[in-house]
From TrEMBL:
Organism: Sphingobium fluviale
Name recorded for this polypeptide: DegT/DnrJ/EryC1/StrS family aminotransferase
Presence of the UniProt keyword RNA-binding in the record: no
InterPro entries reported for this sequence: DegT/StrS_aminotransferase, PyrdxlP-dep_Trfase, PyrdxlP-dep_Trfase_major, PyrdxlP-dep_Trfase_small
Transmembrane segments: none
Length: 377
């Protein structure tokens, strides 16, 4: 490594300040209005954002909540999933996918994932059907849509509800339709690092079902449909007005940012093709590259090497859900483990990927990877 690159600032895994630079001029005056109106919890900015995002996604109802996990929790309840019910989920995902099930006393039934995408393997899901399975949660992992034609056909054949975990994939389409709009309900996260991220926590549930929308609105706000009349046990899962305001301004720019992510992914694919890395493919519809996850048997040594070159990376996710300590006694881990899930967990490495990443930053990642494999040969 040359002297210049050692004194350069590290290449961050993600840099959110670039988005702020772009939205500052719109957000600051608007924020003033929000403070003057004291519209802190839901309120007019949240209603406007709900309408804007519903139009963007092509759905009838969008219900803004306080996080992606909250979205999945209320969607679980609205899907009628009860204590002891079983739900098919991919074994390789962020644990937020299943918190809602666990809060309700439902049991996740883990399924193997596809080698090509890391998304739920429907052939395996078919094998894991058993009495008490009520729903399936496909996760559009890393920003790549699950095969929603197959998911919906599978669910319809077996009478299952479909809750899409679209936390990583806002804006992605499957056959020209936005993901999140296929299932009974679709759930999104606006955690700051997501493709559409707030200035704090946020989430969203979408549905075309009027009754479910009403129920979801009640669940997120203390179980009330009328003020201080609590029809059911509810939650305080309201979205902050500030988050809605920021998200509204960011949503206008999301497609442009997604194009930038795709350009970065295309460049990684071209420049890393001559290395032994297994690169992500675009298999089902159009990937929005929330994460760019490569796989290699040398994952851990590559990661340390990149760190020493000032290139930050991430692991998504190193421990399959069926081996998480909190699930001991709730679920039975597959006897043999899942070969492909374990492969993603132990060999997957997320490279820097964010809208606004410069060519120079990407060159440093690419050069460091090239020099690692030369060193290793
Ligand atoms: C981020 C994420 C969630 C949870 O969202 P939070 O807003 O962090 O609660 C759920 N599922 C997946 C796949 C995620 O990436």
């Amino acid at each position: 490594m040359n002297v210049i690159s050692t004194i350069e600032r590290p290449v961050p895994f993600v840099d959110l300040s670039l988005q702020w630079d772009q939205i500052r001029g719109d957000v600051m005056p608007d924020l003033q209005g929000l403070f003057e109106a004291s519209a802190y919890c839901l309120g007019p900015w949240a209603s406007a954002f709900e309408k804007q995002v519903a139009d963007y996604l092509g759905v009838k109802h969008a219900i803004a909540v306080s996080s992606g996990s909250a979205a999945l929790h209320v969607a679980t309840i609205a899907a009628g999933i009860k204590r002891g019910d079983k739900v098919l989920v991919p074994a390789h995902t962020f644990i937020g996918t299943i918190w809602g099930l666990l809060y309700e006393g439902a049991i996740p039934v883990f399924c193997e994932v596809e080698d090509t995408t890391g998304n739920i393997d429907l052939a395996d899901a078919e094998r894991r059907l058993e009495k008490g399975v009520k729903a399936i949660i496909p996760v559009h992992l890393y920003g790549q849509p699950a095969d929603m034609t197959k998911v919906m056909a599978f669910a319809n054949r077996h009478g299952l509800a479909v809750i899409e975990d679209a936390a990583q994939a806002i804006g992605a389409c499957f056959q020209n339709k936005r993901i999140g709009s296929f299932g009974t309900m679709g759930c999104f996260s606006f955690y700051p690092g997501k493709n559409l991220g707030g200035a704090g926590e946020g989430g969203l549930v979408v549905t075309d079902d009027d009754e479910k929308a009403k129920l979801l609105r009640s669940l997120r706000e203390h179980g009330q449909t009328e003020r201080y009349v609590h029809d059911r046990i509810g939650y305080n899962y309201r979205m902050d007005g500030i988050q809605a305001l920021v998200l509204g301004h960011k949503l206008k720019r999301l497609d442009g940012w997604t194009d930038q992510r795709r350009a970065i992914a295309a460049r990684y694919r071209g420049e890393l093709a001559d290395t032994p890395l297994r690169l992500p493919d675009m298999v089902h519809g159009d990937h929005v590259y929330h994460l760019y996850v490569i796989r290699t048997e040398k994952r851990d040594s590559l990661r340390s090497f990149l760190e020493s070159c000032g290139v930050q990376t991430g692991l998504h996710y190193p421990l399959p859900l069926y081996r998480q300590p909190c699930l001991a006694g709730i679920t039975t881990p597959p006897a043999e483990g899942f070969r492909i899930t374990e492969d993603w967990a132990s060999h997957g490495l997320s490279l820097p990927m964010f809208a606004g990443m410069t060519l120079a930053q990407q060159d440093r990642v690419i050069e460091a990877i090239h020099s690692f494999f030369k060193v290793e040969k």
